[in-house]
Amino acid sequence: MESGSEKKFPLNAKDYKLYEEIGDGVSATVHRALCIPLNIVVAIKVLDLEKCNNDLDGIRREVQTMSLINHPNVLQAHCSFTAGHQLWVVMPYMAGGSCLHIIKSSYQDGFEEPVIATLLRETLKALVYLHAHGHIHRDVKAGNILLDSNGAVKLADFGVSACMFDTGDRQRSRNTFVGTPCWMAPEVMQQLHGYDFKADVWSFGITALELAHGHAPFSKYPPMKVLLMTLQNAPPGLDYERDKRFSKAFKEMVGTCLVKDPKKRPTSEKLLKHPFFKHARPADYLVKTILNGLPPLGDRYRQIKSKEADLLMQNKSEYEAHLSQQEYIRGISAWNFNLEDLKTQAALISDDDSSHAEEPDFHRKQCERQDESALSPERASSSATAPSQDDELNDIPDLDRSFASFPIKPLQALKGCFDINEDDDNTTTPDWNDANLINTGQQLLTKASIGSLAHTTNEDDTAAQNTSIPRHVIPEQKKYLSGSIIPESTFSPKRITSDADREIQQRRYQTERSYSGSLYRTKRDSADETTEVPHVEHKGRFKVTSADLSPKGSTNSTLTPFGGGSSSPSSLNATSASILPSIQSILQQNAMQREEILRLIKYVEQTSAKQPGSPETSMDELLQTPPATSRERELQSQVMLLQQSFSSLTEELKKQKQRNGQLENQLNALTQRND
Ligand SMILES: Nc1ncnc2c1ncn2[C@@H]1O[C@H](COP(=O)(O)OP(=O)(O)OP(=O)(O)O)[C@@H](O)[C@H]1O
Predict the structure, then answer these.
(1) Residue nearest atom 4 in ligand 1 by C-alpha distance
(2) Buried b / exposed e across 155-183, counting CB within 10 Å, b at 16+?
């Protein structure tokens, strides 16, 4: 297949002819297509921006990441552009499809070891590259490992990837919960101390099991159950009995990835040196063993879909359950969500599920702990650690609420941000070349700012603009494509190249993150909670009834949120111990909010200073002056929105300060009592 990497792909839907559907995911459908002027077959991912709701940031991230990467094992986008309310991402067509589709159509029980070693080695090379450049993929799974007709393996789908060098919103987003539950590392679920690239190593281990068995561990369980099982049970692994066909090296490799403590997991770079990967073969081996004889991708996809539909329609209730589970998975995969909510829902699931014969790994593991401990010491001690994990679970904070006052990015603001082409950023092939990136960042800033502001004319959308617009004009920060802020360090010539560097980066990162706090918990547990009317919250695609979720008795004391309401002397130590991190979190949260407010103030000041002829005009006067041009109208509405955000943030800050004071008093009282 012609790669087309040096060609200029047109940014107009008219220049493409969409053929059959070849895949679908949380947010998009993927079509085979023809780029008419270049006569190249491509794959086009079509996303409906109107349905993407508040995940536009994720989409934008995916597009930026995909357009800048340059590695043979990472799927690079040719270009992307908006077409009406859709976003089209043009990519190389991977005729072999995803490993998941190959499994589903012809290898339901998984692949043979040399195939697995080959697929995994190539995937791991992609991860080494991404991690070395500061990216966490966050959604490594067979469905995102694609093969072309020559057996080349590429890791795709950067919808939820994160940059470890990010600041601002994007850094906070690493406190969020993204990925697909079966593949998700425990530390990602827990949201306690943040996570880093080692989360991908866990997902890589799960993917290894998926390729070996034809499905991921716990895949038959509802997502909430998967969360609990991942957190509380021994890590899954290859089973000595059931997996006799696999080598010791493979079992060991999986064992090293699936260690719950991320620090004990190898880096991707180190993992690549594992003897298991010596079994890997060249790309044509994949052509001979798994690709030859497969029906064309479109036919395969259709067959899989109709098979799934038939199976599910056999039993309507099963079908409905499946649909809701799919929604749940999608919800989890696509959106941030609250672990408290899930935990409560998981508790409603009968424990009979645990005896499900679908997951022999898990049950056998209990009997074979001794054997398995040879692979992963954690497994042997998992039963002993389960209760503490449970305790941890009760203390899991929700980290996302504090920025609820910064709403979603509007569709209009995004238009233009996506219209990118590899040629847009100079004439060179996009690369991680630092000098190029600096240029790219600057050029794209101009383009993104102009694009987003120029398109933001729909008054209906202004309510949603108060996040993206200010960020586009925040000075002294480099902007990247559609306006995401990327710090200088992203473009710095220093790359993370060694394990030691990465560990330093990881420590720095974890230190930064560990302060993030829980406004949700604070809010929920506040003294006036009892007066709160039960309400239904919409979290992505979830409906969560908060009233059902509040732990009983938690409203009697302001301490109960953290300690469960007990005031017995024995529980006081535990309570004060658990309260400290929360206080720290809240303090940090306040600091972050203050930072945000300062940025807003700066922006408001700058906006007002830029008003023609009246640098000293007060904000009120400014807003009362009738705008002469649509540009002025636009700026005025932005200023108003900023003012609103500013006052709601100030209020929030006040509340938090009060709350801090209360907590500090309580802590002092507790400490005195303990002494
Ligand atoms: N370039 C491509 N060539 C061939 N098939 C592709 C290509 N890109 C994606 N696909 C197929 O389409 C499916 C869905 O694509 P993708 O994963 O990007 O969508 P998504 O909405 O981001 O999904 P999710 O978030 O669930 O992973 C993939 O699993 C794969 O089978």
Answers:
(1) 94
(2) bbbbbbbbbbbbbbbbbbbbbbbbbbbbb
Q: Is 45 annotated as a binding residue?
A: yes
Q: How far is the CA of 25 from the centre of ligand 1 (A)?
A: 6
Q: Is 43 helix (H, G, I), strand (E, B) or coil?
A: strand
Residues with Cβ within 8 Å of residue 188, at least 6 apart in sequence: 138, 177, 178, 179, 195, 199
Percent of the chain whose pLDDT exceeds 70: 44
CA pair distance 121, 152, nearest whole angstrom: 12
H/E segment holding residue 307: helix 297-313
For ligand 1, is residue 143 a contact (CB within 6 Å)? yes
Joined together, the tokens standing for residue 28 give: 């998009």
396-428 per-residue burial string, b: 16 or more CB within 10 A, e: under 16: bbbbbbbbebbbbbbbbbbbbbbbbbbbbbeee
Residue 669 pLDDT more than 60? Answer: yes
Report how far ligand 1's centroid is from the alpha carbon of 44 (Å).
10
Q: Which atom, in ligand 1's list, is nearest to the CA of 93? A: 3
> How far is Cα 339 from Cα 214, in angstroms, rounded to an integer?
28
What spacing in Å lies between the alpha carbon of 538 and ligand 1's midpoint?
27
Measured distance CA(51)–CA(57) in Å, rounded: 13
* ipTM higher than threshold 0.90: yes
Pocket of ligand 1 contains residue 148 by CB under 6 Å: no
- Residue to mutate (ligand 1; options 9, 22, 30; most atoms within 8 A of CB): 30
Residue 94 near ligand 1, beta carbon < 6 Å: yes
Rounded CA separation 440/494 (Å):
18
154 alpha carbon – ligand 1 mean position (Å) = 12
Ligand 1 lined by 227 (C-beta under 6 Å): no
User: Which atom of ligand 1 lies nearest, measured to the CA of 24?
Assistant: 14
Tokens of residue 307, six digits: 């098979």
Give the pair of three-digit tokens for residue 537.
Answer: 């919250």
Burial 5-24 (b: 16+ CB within 10 A, else e): eebebbbebeebeeeebbbe
What does the H/E/C string look like for 367-413?
HCHHHHHCCCHHHHCHHHHHHHHHHHHHCCCCCCHHHCCCCCCCHHH
Say which of 24, 48, 109, 139 is annotated catalytic: 139
Retrieve residue 201's tokens: 């190593």
Which residue minimizes the CA distance to atom 13 of ligand 1? 23
Q: CA–CA separation, 340 vs 180, rounded Å? A: 17
The answer, yes or no, to whether any atom of ligand 1 lies below 6 A from the CB of 156, is yes
pLDDT digits (tens, 9 = 90+) for 22-32: 998 767 899 99
Q: Which of 361, 368, 389 is nearest to 205 (CA)?
A: 361
- CA distance readout (Å), 54 to 27, 187, 226, 504, 596: 12, 24, 25, 33, 20
Residue 591's pLDDT band, with cuts at 50, 70 and 90, is low
Cβ–Cβ under 8 Å, residues 204 and 268: yes
When pLDDT is cut at 50, 70 and 90, the band that residue 114 belongs to is very high
Atom of ligand 1 nearest to the CA of 334: 25
The domains found in the chain, sorted by start residue, are: 13-92 (3.30.200.20), 97-294 (1.10.510.10)
Rounded to 5 degrees, what are φ and ψ at 41? -80, 130
The number of residues making up the chain comes to 675
Q: Is 139 a catalytic residue?
A: yes
Determine contact, residues 84/97, Cβ cutoff 8 Å: no
Which ligand 1 atom is nearest residue 333's CA? 25
Decide: 25 in ligand 1 pocket, CB within 6 A.
Answer: yes
CA 144 / ligand 1 centre spacing (Å): 6
pLDDT tens digits for range 511-535:
333 222 222 222 333 333 333 333 2
